[in-house]
Design goal:
Layout (H helix, E strand, L loop, with lengths): L27 E3 L12 E7 L9 E7 L9 E2 L4 E8 L1 E5 L4 E5 L3 E4 L6 E3 L6 E8 L4 H7 L8 H10 L3 E2 L1
Antiparallel strand pairs: 1-2, 2-3, 3-10, 4-11, 5-8, 5-10, 6-7, 6-9
Length: 168
């Protein structure tokens, strides 16, 4: 395997990096489900690198889940891979064969088409990084998935198809 073909053709490099401090506020906070406990905090999404900011190369998101139960059921993507890196707490990750309790430092890579799921069922907060490659507009997915109860069955099906999410 070799390096990809060059995409930058200058001779001196550019000053174009971006920095986001850990103290930055989340870009989006999903409301807790209606059946969640009164003290539920919801899920906070930090849009670290979006498909727009990386030119479609990848998307990187920090997801901070509250102690309430949450996460998608088993699904796959036809256009992108997805990776999970646990920062803190305990997350249940499904690798297509089994559920694994993942903790700080654990990592799961899911190739295109790979069955997977994740959930926080620990009763404690958990935080992870999610990486999608190539990049996709996952911000619209994270923000729209909280409104699914307001959609018809046909609208829900179209939403998941538009966001490359195929549930089994």
């Amino acid at each position: 395997m070799s390096y990809p073909d060059p995409r930058y053709f200058g001779d001196h490099g550019e000053i174009n990096a971006t920095f986001r401090p850990a103290t930055a506020e989340p870009d989006f906070i999903a409301k807790p489900r209606p059946d969640a406990p009164a003290d539920a905090t919801g899920t906070a999404y930090h849009y670290l690198s979006t498909t727009i900011s990386t030119g479609g190369e990848y998307g990187l998101y920090r997801v901070d889940m509250g102690p309430e139960f949450g996460g998608p059921s088993t699904h796959f993507h036809k256009a992108m891979s997805e990776s999970f890196f646990i920062l803190s707490g305990a997350m249940r990750l499904f690798d297509g064969r089994r559920w694994i309790t993942a903790t700080s430092g654990d990592y799961l890579y899911v190739p295109v088409g790979g069955l997977h799921a994740f959930r926080n069922e620990s009763g404690e907060p958990a935080s992870m990084l999610m990486l999608f490659a190539p990049g996709a507009p996952r911000e619209d997915y994270f923000e729209g998935v909280t409104e699914l109860d307001d959609l018809s069955q046909e609208e829900r099906a179209e939403f998941f198809l538009r966001h490359d999410s195929f549930f089994v």
